[in-house]
Amino acid sequence: MLTGCYIKLEYLTRRVTGTTDMNIRQFLTIAILIFCSQSVFSHDRECLDSLRSEYNRPCIERLIPRSLDIDNTMLEPQASLFSEDTEGASTASDQLLVAVLGASGRTGIHVLEELKSRGANIRALSRNTERAKEKVGGDFEWMSADVTDPESLLLALEGVDILISTIGATGGDSSELISYQGSINFVEAAKESGVKHIIYMSSIGAGGADNFSTVLLNLVLDKTMKWKSLGEDYIRNSGIDFTIVRPGGLRGEPGTLGIRFEQGDEVIGWIPRADVASVLVESIYNADALNKTFEVINDESLDVNAWRDEFKNLKNDEYGEIATGELPARYWLTASMILLAIIYLIRRRRKRRA
């Protein structure tokens, strides 16, 4: 089958260079065949790669229904941090221990500041605690934790009630290793340590959006939205209460615009890191934030603090689709049609010269 594809490509090349007469209808048929086979070959390649990987990389075809092997005990309800008579306020909030993964990162720093302003009991986690202390400052309890090192996570999460994760692949980090396998590692450590609530910063695009910025990020950053999406899915099926926040582009002045909540990954926009941190921390103290996945962007038409009452309007099972990380069909079709038009114009010009 793959050999047949190469034959078609060679045949197409001969036609494009003009060594044989070209029929537009035949070219379109060939272009469509190549396009249709692209996604099949890419999925097959990932299925084959999974046999050589140190840990399982689920094929997209197996993601519907869920590809992750979930023990039935994972779905048993956990003890809640909220009581029915608190109207969304966390009980004994001054006694809860909140751990922040990625605490020295650009968003993690804002999370620490927001938690400190609320008088929370904080444990800041970083791969390099000495460098983090110098960078962040403040009187925080620092512990070493690396999402690629399960043992370090077990030690760091001992006695923790709530885990906020702001981790993400940076520099030479692998999106698969950090966003997907890293999520698996901290979820398993959280289960063993008795963590009651995981609050995870993901990204717009992890719910299957195919806007241009998401497509570009997937092409440049190793299908990053696919791995974020799979990490989200593992958290949702962990049996631990969760809140998954998907911010838009991270820029802007904090606290100057309203914050808009959406679901289904059908929105695009910007939001400052400090505003994202406010939403992450508010999710600790608002019972309506439990087991929700949603996007956040700035909206100048909304009141600055109106978002704090929006958690109750979110649905539990609305999160879009599992992102594939592949180039969406409409982009391939558009590129094919543009190529077809260019070839047609070139051949038409040659005929006029002849």
Question: Could you please describe the fold and organization of this structure?
Answer:
Helices cover 41% and strands 14% of the residues. It is α/β, with parallel strands linked by helices. The protein has two domains: 2-50 and 340-353, no CATH class; 86-323, NAD(P)-binding Rossmann-like Domain (Rossmann fold). The longest helix has 26 residues, at 24-49. The radius of gyration is 24 Å and the shape is globular.
Secondary-structure blueprint of this entry?
Blueprint: H1 2-16, H2 24-49, E1 97-101, H3 108-117, E2 121-126, H4 129-136, E3 141-144, H5 150-156, E4 162-165, H6 175-193, E5 197-201, H7 212-220, H8 224-236, E6 241-247, E7 249-250, E8 258-262, E9 270-271, H9 273-285, E10 292-299, H10 329-353
Parallel strand pairs: 1-2, 1-4, 2-3, 4-5, 5-6, 6-10, 7-9
Antiparallel strand pairs: 8-10
CATH topology of the largest domain: Rossmann fold
Helicity level: 40-55%
Distance between the amino and carboxyl termini:
39 Å
> Which strand-content bin applies to the residues?
5-15%
Structural class: alpha/beta
Contiguous uncertain segments of 5+ residues = 1-22, 33-79, 84-89
Question: For the largest beta sheet, what order do the strands appear in spatially?
Answer: 3-2-1-4-5-6-10-8
Kindly state the mean pLDDT as a whole number? 77
Give the SSE string: HHEHEHEHEHEHHEEEEHEH
Main pleated-sheet profile = 8 strands, mixed
Tell me the number of strands.
Answer: 10
- Architecture of the largest domain in CATH? 3-Layer(aba) Sandwich
Alpha-carbon Rg, integer: 24 Å
